[in-house]
Amino acid sequence: MPGSFLRSKCRAVLTSFPPAPVGTSRKAFASITSDLESNSQPISSTSVSCVEAIQVGQVRQLRSLQAVHLKPLKREAEFGIPSCDLQLRSFSVQPLEFFSDFALRAAYYLGLPAYGPIPLPRITERWTVPKSHFIFKKAQENFERVTLRRMIQIRDGNPEIVQLWLAYLRKRQLYGVGMKANVWEFGQLGLDLSKDVREKQLGQLGDVWSHLGQIDGLGTPEKVEEMLNSRRSKDAAGLRQPLATHK
Question: How far apart are CA 30 and CA 26, in angstroms?
Answer without folding.
Answer: 6
